């Protein structure tokens, strides 16, 4: 069932969103050459505990995955793109790190992801990351009341096509609110004017992710970490967005993040 949120409920989700944005900002500042992924995981745990929030990932056990997830943040490096398990890995110069975080604050969820390049960026990695950020802003701009779900998907797909990146449709955006994953799947490509009508109160986690040269994925033996099938590098950008009478409202925007689209 798809639940439309009231303005007051969206404001409560924004509280969770501000905290998610704060944690991702701090993790991005700490992600440097020589830093262990486990240190980033521990810092996220400390912040969540101090804030009195609840991780949406801890004990998360969907149909895929091997056993419940026992971390609070997904950390995926280079060809890994989604659901990366934090492990004993020291970041190296040029690594492409995806950080995905979802928390509950007072019964309401927010979900966001960002990609950072550690140390010295390669130009092709910089372009890849910029493309997912551009696609996210295009998706946000398409989340207009009265529009269709396919408008959002088509906006993401158009950016991918313009930059020459394949699109995988197995994992994409989703509804969010009282839980991390609510009804509604938002593919990262589609046709405009198709799908359900976007109504004020609809809350979505929009998350374009691309691999440089393939749309196919493989899973690590851990059952969680998803990688590009050909080993090419990947990127992931995500925000929690509310459709309102006045247009899309981003609930997880980071303070130092410049939106290409307001």
Q: Name the CATH superfamily classification.
A: Creatinase/methionine aminopeptidase superfamily
Query: Looking at the structure, what is the overall shape?
Result: globular
**Count, helices:** 4
Whole-number mean pLDDT: 96
Tally of DSSP β-strands: 14
The succession of helices and strands, N to C, reads HHEEEEEHHEEEEEEEEE
The CATH topology assignment is: Creatine Amidinohydrolase
Major sheet: 5 strands, antiparallel
Second CATH tier, the architecture: Alpha-Beta Complex
How big a fraction of the residues is strand? Answer: 15-25%
* Largest sheet strand order: 7-6-8-13-14
End-to-end separation in angstroms reads 30 Å
Cofactor: Co(2+); Zn(2+); Mn(2+); Fe(2+)
Enzyme class: hydrolase
Subunit structure: Monomer.
Domain Peptidase M24: 11-245
Structure description:
With 262 residues, this protein is α+β, with helices and mostly antiparallel strands. It has one domain (7-250): Alpha-Beta Complex (Creatine Amidinohydrolase), CATH 3.90.230. Helices cover 28% and strands 24% of the residues. The protein has 4 helices and 14 strands. It has helices at residues 7-30, 37-51, 123-142, 149-163, and strands at 54-55, 74-77, 80-82, 96-105, 108-117, 173-175, 182-186, 203-206, 209-211, 217-219, 226-228, 234-236, 239-244, 247-250. The strands form 4 sheets. The protein has a 5-stranded antiparallel beta sheet, with helices on both faces. Strands 1, 2, 4 and 5 form a 4-stranded antiparallel beta sheet that branches. A hairpin with a 6-residue loop joins strand 6 (173-175) and strand 7. Helix 1 runs antiparallel to helix 2 (37-51) and helix 3 runs antiparallel to helix 4 (149-163). The longest helix is centred in the first third of the chain and has 24 residues, at 7-30. It is globular. The protein starts with 6 loop residues before the first helix and ends in a 12-residue tail after the last strand. The mean pLDDT is 96.
């Amino acid at each position: 069932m798809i639940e439309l949120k009231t303005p007051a409920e969206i404001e409560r989700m924004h509280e969770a969103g501000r905290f998610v944005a704060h944690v991702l900002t701090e993790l991005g500042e700490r992600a440097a050459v020589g830093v262990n992924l486990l240190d980033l995981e521990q810092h996220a745990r400390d912040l969540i505990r101090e804030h009195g929030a609840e991780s949406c990932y801890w004990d998360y056990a969907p149909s895929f995955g091997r056993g419940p997830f026992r971390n609070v943040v997904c950390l995926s490096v280079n060809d890994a793109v989604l659901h990366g398990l934090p492990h004993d890995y020291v970041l190296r110069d040029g690594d492409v790190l995806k950080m995905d975080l979802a928390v509950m604050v007072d019964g309401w969820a927010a979900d966001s992801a960002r990609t950072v390049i550690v140390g010295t960026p390669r130009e092709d990695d910089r372009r890849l990351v910029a493309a997912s950020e551009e696609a996210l802003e295009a998706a946000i701009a398409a989340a207009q009341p009265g529009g269709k779900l396919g408008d959002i998907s088509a906006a993401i797909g158009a950016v991918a096509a313009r930059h020459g990146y394949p699109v995988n449709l197995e994992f994409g955006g989703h509804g969010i609110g009282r839980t991390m994953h609510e009804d509604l799947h938002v593919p990262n490509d589609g046709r405009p004017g198709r799908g359900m009508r976007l109504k004020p109160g609809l809350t979505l986690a929009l998350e374009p992710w691309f691999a440089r040269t393939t749309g196919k994925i493989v899973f690590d033996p851990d059952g969680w970490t998803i990688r590009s099938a050909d080993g090419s590098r990947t990127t992931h950008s995500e925000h929690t967005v509310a459709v309102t009478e006045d247009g899309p409202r981003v609930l997880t925007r980071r303070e130092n993040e410049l939106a290409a689209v307001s």
